[in-house]
Amino acid sequence: MESKEWQAPGSLSPSSLGAFTACPLAFRFSYVQRLPEPPSAPASKGTLVHRALERLHDRPPSERTLEIALADLGLAASELAAHPEFAGLGLTDEEWDGFVVEAETLVRRYFDLEDPTRVNPIGLEIKLEAKLDKVTLRGIIDRLELDDEGELVVTDYKTGNTPSERWEQKSLAGVHLYAVLCEQNFGRRPSRVQLLYLSKPEAIVAYPTDSTVRGVEMKSGAVMDAVRRACRSDDFRPRPSALCNFCSFQEFCPSFGGDPAIAHAVLHERARDAAGQPPLPMATV
Ligand code: SF4
After folding, report:
1. What pTM does this model have?
2. Please, which pLDDT band fits residue 282 given cuts at 50, 70 and 90?
3. What is the tens place of the pLDDT at every residue in 220-244?
4. Cβ(136)–Cβ(185) under 8 Å?
5. Cα-flanking dihedrals φ and ψ of residue 78, to 5°?
6. How remote is the CA of residue 145 from the centroid of ligand 1, in Å?
7. Atom 4 of ligand 1, residue of closest alpha carbon
8. 109-141, pLDDT tens digit by residue?
9. CA of residue 123 to ligand 1 center, whole Å
10. Among 25, 58, 91, 101, which has the minimal tally of Cβ within 10 Å of its Cβ?
11. 150-184 per-position pLDDT tens digit
């Protein structure tokens, strides 16, 4: 069969960089073809908790209490309930209440990790871009703050499970990418980047250096080169791992007997059906 040439994405983010490294074929589905994926309860719970913590840190320090954080969670839930990401979960009223209770547990655990009245945020949910030699990086910093010494600190909330030691290094690779984004945009390297894993709860802290910054530049450039090569040669191989259990594209993966070539047509038709729209002619990519 004749292979096609794909248009490579214009930039990489911490998640897309990790996705290509984990499985090039899943990366193609998500970031090259941008195929629709079904809403995911864990991802939506993360969105809800992030929004509640954003609201909390937007308040004066004296108001950042647990009681107000839970009220902010309620406001965030009302604000997001009708959003397609949440409505698409198709939860019953009872399931929705359980979903919000689980998010509440994560907000409570946040208070076990730090005292928000002592945090000095200077930016929340900041979208940043950094142009390096070979690649443009993009990312959203959950929280940028100044510590007691006036140094920049980047905080990223994680609502999934705490990584095992094996995965910790991968998470830290993403963390150092935030340091590069911060340095390029604000002219200063953060003294510390921290991942707050709310489910355990546990904080993982990294201290960026010249060497970690160089490591990000080299690794992200090498991944972008590999992405461009894969796009030119239409060579995105599946890389089966434990992550396959969470992959939305398993039915189209050759490792599971599927055909990647039909993914676009099938998933777009399903998305149209879900939105109650009439079918369109079959797409070819
Ligand atoms: S099922 Fe596994 S190997 Fe296949 S595309 Fe998904 S992550 Fe990759």
Report:
1. 0.87
2. very low
3. 999 999 999 999 999 999 999 998 9
4. no
5. -65, -40
6. 37
7. 253
8. 999 999 999 999 999 999 999 999 999 999 999
9. 36
10. 101
11. 999 999 999 986 555 445 555 566 778 999 999 99
For 31-58, b/e burial (b = at least 16 CB within 10 A) is bbbebeeebeeeebbbbbbbbbbbbbbe
Q: Are 259 and 44 in contact (CB under 8 A)?
A: no
